[in-house]
Amino acid sequence: MAGKNLSSLLSTVGGVGRLWMFNYGKNWDGTKKIEEMIIPFTTSGVIDETVDFDLIGKLDMDSVEDAGEDMNVVDHRFTDGSVGVKLVEDGTYGLTCQSMNIAEDICVELLNMVKTTTGSDNTLGKNSLAYGQDGKMGFINPCAIFLETLSSDKYSGILYPYASLGADLQVAGNKTEIWVVNMNIGAQNTPLKALDKTGASKDLTAIWGESTYVLIPKRTETAGSGE
C-alpha cells in the first residue's frame, strides 16, 4: 500500500488581511443558513456587492494574537492509581486584534455608537457620536466573523460562524500614533438553531453542525479572490 502524501496546503496559509462581520441581531432574517451566505470576495480588486457580510476594516497584523485557552488532557484513574482513560477537556478559541479603520460607520457597527441629529451645527449635540447609550457599549453577541487570509493556495479565510465581539476605542497621546479600535473575539460552538432579528428560532446551520471555526476555500470562478 502506497504511503499517503501528507504535505498540506495549510502550510501556505499566511497572514490576516481584512475582518468581516455578520451581526445576527441586526441582519439575520432566518431565510439563509450561515453556510448559504456569500463569503466576501473580490473581482479585479473590487469587493462583490452581493456579499452578506459587512467589512469592518483592515487589521493591524502585528496586533493579531491568540486569546484562547489551551486544552487540557486529564487522567482518569482506577482506585489502584493506574490510568484508566485519558480525556481532553476542551479549550476555547479566540483572538484579539486592532483595526485602524475608525470611520463613523465602523464605530456605529463595532462600538454601538449612535449618531445624534438634534441641535444645530454650532451646538455640542448635532453630528456627535454617542457611546454607551443605555449601557450598550461595544459588545456584539452573536455574530459571524470572517478573517481573510493574505496568502493561501486554497483558502480565502477562516470563518467563526457563531462568535462574540467586544470592542473599545483606544486613544493615543503620542502624535505619531493613531486611534484604533481594539477587538476581542471569542468563538463559540455553533448552535443548530438561533434567534433571528425578530426573535424567532430558525435553523442556523445544516452542514457544519456545531463547529467552532471553518476554513473557507476560494471561489473557483474567481481565482485569486480573498487575497
Commentary on this structure:
The chain has 227 residues and is mainly beta. The chain is built from two helices and 16 strands. The protein has helices at residues 24-27, 104-111; strands spanning 14-23, 42-43, 46-47, 54-58, 65-66, 72-77, 83-89, 93-99, 114-115, 129-130, 139-151, 155-170, 180-187, 193-195, 201-203, 214-217. The strands form five sheets. Strands 1, 4, 5, 8, 11, 12, 13 and 16 form an eight-stranded antiparallel β-sheet that branches. Strands 2-3 form a two-stranded antiparallel sheet. β14 and β15 (201-203) form a beta hairpin. It is globular. The two termini are 39 Å apart. Mean pLDDT is 82; it is low at 222-227.
Quaternary:
single chain
Q: Helix coverage percent of residues?
A: under 10%
| Largest sheet descriptor | 8 strands, antiparallel
Number of strands: 16
Low-confidence spans: 222-227
| CA-CA gap between termini | 39 Å
Mean pLDDT: 82
Approximately what portion of the residues adopt beta-strand conformation?
35-45%
Shape descriptor: globular
Radius of gyration: 21 Å
Count of runs of 4 or more consecutive helical residues:
2
SSE order, one letter for each helix or strand: EHEEEEEEEHEEEEEEEE
Structural class, from secondary structure content?
A: mainly beta
